[in-house]
């Protein structure tokens, strides 16, 4: 069976036709797919500027600019794998706990059907139920490693009187629940002012490798990639890309911008350097279109999605599944 393909941009203009992720066909079911691209339009975990519920729609629109082949790695994801747009996950915009359950169940169903997921968010809280869904469908998996690009560690304990489920807490919960192996987790680009000097002590005490933006600058992209590869090894790994890892000069449309971040060129170089790792799921989160300027953030997010899709396709093609 021929894999789904985006229409040829030299035959059907990229500004024409249905708006789907990467111009791929939209499917109702993940049956027969290797990778399902889904949207999670939810920002109920946001503690600062809202709007990421609109992220998937704008990421879809900007993703129509992506072509078929990675120019550097040579990966042609649609030739390696059957990929399609599965639409948006059902959410409840006024109930965080119900939404976590809905996301978990729907990701688990996709995963149990054999497809891996590439997710467009949404705020960063969605990473928690995505990880729950992966592990529910594959309970024999050991806790996952993680490569995490972000300005923030997202390992806080609670906000606003004990609320434990916000976009600043997903990876603390994931470690506590045994979804992530902290000793195989690396966070890249962390920066910005803190609430207190001990904000990241818990994460470091668990063994999370935190590479601040200052260390990124000292090491350079290639050495950061080498360190990330050392930390996660060749075990099953999740990749989470928060768009605020990029400097707001390049990605202003996000909920909690922090100056002094990565350039898109640095981020792309580091993502490409992860090729060959056993990455079996990923998300791109925190694109907030109401704060965007000229769709710059959505385009950056869609570009990162394509780069990550290439990583997933390569990993999926080289493994029998997990």
How would you explain this protein's 3D organization?
By secondary structure, the chain is α/β, with parallel strands linked by helices. The protein has a single domain (21-317), classed as Arginase, Chain A. It is 32% helix and 16% strand. It has 10 helices and 8 strands. It has helices at 55-63, 77-80, 96-112, 127-137, 170-176, 201-206, 213-219, 221-232, 264-272, 296-317; strands spanning 35-40, 83-88, 116-121, 144-149, 180-190, 209-212, 237-242, 279-285. An 8-stranded parallel beta sheet has the order 2-1-3-8-7-4-5-6, sandwiched between helices. Helix 3 runs parallel beside helix 4. It is globular and about 55 Å long. The model has no long low-confidence stretch (mean pLDDT 96).
* DSSP E strands, number: 8
How many whole angstroms does the radius of gyration measure?
Answer: 18 Å
Overall body shape = globular
**CATH architectural type:** 3-Layer(aba) Sandwich
Major β-sheet annotation:
8 strands, parallel
The third-level CATH topology is Arginase, Chain A
The end-to-end distance, rounded to whole angstroms, is 23 Å
Give the SSE string.
EHHEHEHEHEHEHHEHEH
Name of the level-1 CATH class: Alpha Beta
Helix content: 25-40%
In short:
By secondary structure, the protein is of the alpha/beta class. The protein has ten helices and eight strands.
Descriptive terms for the model:
single chain; 322 residues; alpha/beta; Arginase, Chain A; 8-stranded parallel beta sheet; 10 helices; 32% helix; 16% strand
